[in-house]
Design a protein that fits this description.
Elements lengths: L2 H11 L5 H11 L1 E5 L5 E6 H11 L3 E4 L4 E6 L12 E3 L4 E5 L10 E4 L8 H12 L5
Antiparallel strand pairs: 1-6, 2-4, 2-5, 3-4, 3-7
Helix pairs in contact: 1-2, 3-4
Length: 137
């Protein structure tokens, strides 16, 4: 296992109250269910719109084929605007986060890995508004 991959697993697991438990889940199941609002929050965008938005915005994002959604990772202190196409998930929510090595199905996988940078909320907001025809402003 590469040093970078192990560092990514350690960083992801560190958001759980029990990083060792999260690390065991990564090793045994290929994912861990982690709390949001600690190091990042997320916006869930369902269907093809999620993929299309990710193509425009990039950044760390998880695709969950079973849920037919893309989860964009944003800073934990993000203020999100009410919209029908992007559900904001933060404190009190949990997310199935794939092992950093998982970059294809089955199960949730990374479209882009968490590499130290998070998705810029304004960029995602603009992409969703542009793709859905909602007025940008």
């Amino acid at each position: 296992m590469s040093t970078a991959l192990q560092a990514a697993r350690t960083r992801l697991a560190s958001v759980d109250k029990s990083p060792a438990r999260a690390a065991r889940w990564f090793a045994s199941a290929g994912y861990a269910v982690l709390p949001l609002g600690v190091q990042w929050s997320a916006v869930r965008v369902r269907g093809r719109l999620g993929i299309d938005a990710w193509v425009r915005v990039g950044g760390p994002a998880i695709h969950d084929p079973a849920d037919q959604a893309v989860y964009f990772l944003l800073p934990p202190d993000t203020t999100w605007w009410p919209c029908r196409d992007g559900e904001f998930l933060a404190d009190g929510a949990w997310l199935s986060v794939p092992d950093p090595a998982r970059t294809e199905p089955p199960g949730p996988y990374w479209l882009s890995p968490l590499d130290g940078y998070l998705v810029r909320p304004e960029a995602l907001k603009t992409a969703l508004r542009t793709l859905t025809g909602e007025a940008v402003g």
